[in-house]
Structure formats: C-alpha cells, structure tokens
Write a structure and sequence with these properties.
It is a single chain. The chain has 280 residues and is α/β, with parallel strands linked by helices. The protein has 2 domains: 173 residues, Rossmann fold; 96 residues, Sandwich (Jelly Rolls). Helix content is 23%, strand content 29%. The protein has 6 helices and 16 strands. Strand 6, helix 6 and strand 7 form a beta-alpha-beta unit.
C-alpha cells in the first residue's frame, strides 16, 4: 500500500489527488490550512468546527467570501450567529440528529455519499482530467488540548480507516492534520510512504522549502505488533512493539521513500516542516 501525504502541501506547484478538508471543533492549524485550501475540492465543517472556521476567516476579514461548502452535525455546538451568517450566504447547514454517530463520522458519511458529485465538480478544471474516483480526506484537528479529545480523534481515525479497508478502491485515505504532524493508519502488510523534501542530513531540501522534519513515530493501537522498517536512521527487523513495552518514537527519516511492514494496523505520524506548524 502506498501513501503520499506530502502531495497535499505542494501548494499550486503540483496538483494532488482530489481531497476534502474536514474542520473539527478544534484549534485550526492555520498555516497548514493556508496551503491545503489552495487545492481542496470541498471543505466541510463538523458542527462547532464552523465556529472555528468563521473565527479564522473573520481574523482575515474573509468571513463573507471564504465559505465552507457544507456544515453538518447535530448542531448543538455551532453558535446561532455563525449558523445564521452561513445560512444567509447559502451554505448548506444540515442537521443530523443520529445519536449513534459523531459529528466527525457524519461528515465522513456525507463525503462518501457525495464523492462522485464533488469530484465531478472539481474536474471542471483542465488540470484535473487525470484524477481518479477516490476522494482523499484530510481532517483538521488538534492533539495538543484535552487528552480525552485527542484520544477520541485517534480512535475515530483508526476505526474509520479499518471500516474503509475493504472499500479502498472507492474510499480515499484519511489523514489527520494536527498542530505539528500528519498522522494516518498503516494497514497490515508492506506500506510504502513517500517522504520527499524532508529536512534531514543529506537531503536535497533546506529548511525554507522542506515539507517535513525528520521525526516520525510508529505506534501500535490494538495490541502488540511486529514491524520491519526501511529508510530510517534506526531500522528494525521483525521487531515487537506495544504500549507498555518498546515503542518506535522519535525515529528519523533517511530516504525519500520509506517502508513499514506490519502484521497489524499501526499508527504512523510525521512531523510537519516548521513553516506548516500552527503558531502558538
């Protein structure tokens, strides 16, 4: 399985695979958003995420010109002022009162149900004719606040990725963009991750044009895992890792393409380049 998370951070230089942005009710990494927004096909806010989006745009005096494509959730968190503002501007505000799903998973369901329409609209640009029918999903969230909310985001990233494994030909990959990292769930088997322009010894990219810092982490979530790695400073072979035992954290990228082979799904996280990190 191949992963190419840095393609979304190339700005207007290279057109990435079609992707949607999901804005959660968490602090937004504005630096990352500024780049991702250049090529996003669709932006959807999860309930109170609309408040975060509105505040970000209002700070730039763009709250009436830069709009999300849709807002969905049980609508218990969006402020009345923000809801009225976007409704008056024609943004669909969709109430979904299903108590067995979160605002986040409601957004994912909406994107799945409307993937063909979203991609068809995006294909109106000449550069997009070679796009496939998969819609990658980038989740703008935060892992630096409440610990329980951070675990909730990791939990949903893991469970939804597992649910979509059987449908990967039509369901795009999920990436969590937090304050300083891009995180995703590697699948059982061999995973090839493209890591060009990492700020690493011997790399071609310098601090001003790099996409990634050198640090990575591999964390098993559902129990022990045995992993084999290639392309890192400290590679391992059939190495047992588990929470409560040995963990692969703060390893370093040493190649433009790295590999992780695992018998079970594991979390993989990359440190974003400094220029994409959220300002504190």
């Amino acid at each position: 399985m191949e992963w190419n998370p840095t393609q979304f951070f190339n700005g207007s230089n290279d057109l990435p695979a079609p992707f949607a942005l999901v804005v959660l009710n968490q602090p937004i990494n504005e630096r990352a958003f500024g780049v991702l927004n250049e090529n996003a096909c669709f932006t959807i806010c999860a309930d109170g995420g609309a408040n975060r989006f509105y505040d970000m745009m209002k700070s730039q005096e763009k709250e009436s010109t830069h709009l999300p494509n849709a807002i969905i959730g049980d609508l218990d968190s969006i402020s009345p002022t923000v809801r009225t503002h976007y409704e008056d501007l024609g943004v669909p505000v969709i109430e979904d009162s299903d108590q067995y799903s979160t605002d986040f998973t409601k957004c994912l369901k909406y994107l799945r149900d409307h993937t063909a329409q979203i991609i068809a609209t995006a294909r109106s640009t000449p550069e997009a004719v070679e796009w496939g029918n998969r819609l990658e999903i980038l989740i703008l969230g935060g892992l630096g606040g409440r610990v329980d909310q951070a675990f909730s985001q990791i939990h949903h990233l893991y469970t939804v990725t597992q649910q979509q494994r059987a449908e990967r030909e039509v369901a795009g990959d999920l990436y969590l963009i937090s304050e300083e990292s891009v995180t995703f769930i590697l699948q059982p088997g061999r995973n090839t991750i493209h890591t060009p322009r990492a700020n690493r010894p011997g790399g071609a990219a310098g601090p001003q044009d790099c996409l990634l810092e050198e640090n990575i982490g591999i964390v098993p979530l559902s129990g022990p895992a045995r992993i084999t790695t290639r392309g890192f400073e400290w590679d391992v072979e059939d190495w047992r890792t588990e929470i409560g035992g040995q963990l692969s954290t703060s390893n370093h990228i040493r190649a433009d393409v790295v590999e992780v082979t695992s018998g079970v799904s594991v979390l993989f996280t990359l440190e974003l380049a400094k220029r994409f990190k959220r300002e504190r």
